[in-house]
Amino acid sequence: DLLIQEVLRLKAERQAVILAHSYQLPEVQEVADFVGDSLGLAREAQRTEAKVIVFAGVHFMAETAAILNPEKTVLLPDLEAGCSLADSIRPEDVLAWKKDHPEGIVVAYVNTKAEVKALADVCVTSANAVEVVARLPKDRPIFFVPDMFLGAHVARVTGRKLDLFPGECHVHAGIREEHLKALLEKHPGAEFMIHPECGCGSSCLFLKPDAKMLSTEGMVRYAKKAEAKEFVVATEVGILHRLSKEAPGKTFIPVKPDAICEYMKRITLEKVYLSLKEMRHVIRVPEEVAKKARRALEAMVAVG
Ligand code: MLT
């Protein structure tokens, strides 16, 4: 395919790498040098010696890469690739909580804008949120922002009391108990892998006590090693491409086939090509914001 060849040619010419999130379109995942979750992508962005990073993902992920690597050029192929969850919280929301809790600790899910990360003590992803929160001091109030479903999951697993911000990812929040119920009836023998951002929350554990609450990387790892042959998957459907590729011979059934993030899907192969050709769109974070956000992000990258 000519477009793929052109992407690969330009990538070499620009000394670039393409990093793609697991929710990206299959054809975009296929041209990427690395495909992973937010944590893996942030680490890969730090590790690479490439001068240019084309970030096939959404805006906050490219921003994260830019904050961690001020000397590299980070390109986002479409500036409209946003995140409803990151948009749900403003810096004022965090400042208001801090005012009431001067001793408090703010834990920001990586799905936040740089200005919110700059006010956080530590960032987390779904892959390491439990581990990070479990290590926090026990005698101080904790504000977990912005995903309330993930926050409730972390509170339940760690036994810690967390103040939750009422944010949600519109795609995951749309995955509800009734979707799980229907699949349970159809596939009683399948293993259930459920992302903790899902709207069914921990109530899915009443329906299916042995369901696994997993981040996308957790799902890939689990599917590879589990004996089961059939898995019901509750998250954005982009992950199915990786699951089928990395755990061949197993069957993956989306709990909700229309759990599709329209922001993730704005990144097409053609836009990746144009991004490399025209070196656009460069993501820059003002240094005074980046400096503060970097501490919280470095604490995140170090765990898990
Ligand atoms: C991420 O961290 O990339 C998203 O939350 C999806 C995931 O759980 O990996």
Describe the structure.
The chain has 304 residues and is α/β, with parallel strands linked by helices. The protein has three domains: 101 residues, Rossmann fold; 84 residues, 3-Layer(aba) Sandwich (Rossmann fold); 80 residues, Rossmann fold, CATH 3.40.50.10800. Helices cover 43% and strands 15% of the residues. The strands form three sheets. A four-stranded parallel sheet has the order 2-1-3-4, sandwiched between helices. It has a four-stranded parallel sheet with strand order 6-5-7-8, sandwiched between helices. β7, α8 and β8 form a beta-alpha-beta unit. The longest helix is centred in the last third of the chain and has 15 residues. D-malate binds next to α12. The site of D-malate (MLT) has 9 residues, from α12.
State the secondary-structure class: alpha/beta
Overall CATH class of the largest domain: Alpha Beta
Q: Over the alpha carbons, how many angstroms does the gyration radius reach?
A: 19 Å
Number of helices: 15
* CATH fold description of the largest domain: Rossmann fold
Which outline best applies?
globular
How would you name the CATH homologous superfamily of the largest domain? Answer: NadA-like
Classify the beta-strand content into a percent band.
15-25%
Low-confidence stretches: none
The rounded distance between the terminal residues' Cα atoms is 39 Å
On the 0 to 100 scale, the average pLDDT is: 97
- Sketch the major β-sheet: 4 strands, parallel
- H/E element order: HEHEHEHEHEHEHEHEHHEHEHEHEHH
Helix residue percentage: 40-55%
Report the bound ligands by name, code or SMILES.
D-malate
Second-tier CATH architecture of the largest domain: 3-Layer(aba) Sandwich
Work out the oligomeric state of the chains in this entry.
single chain
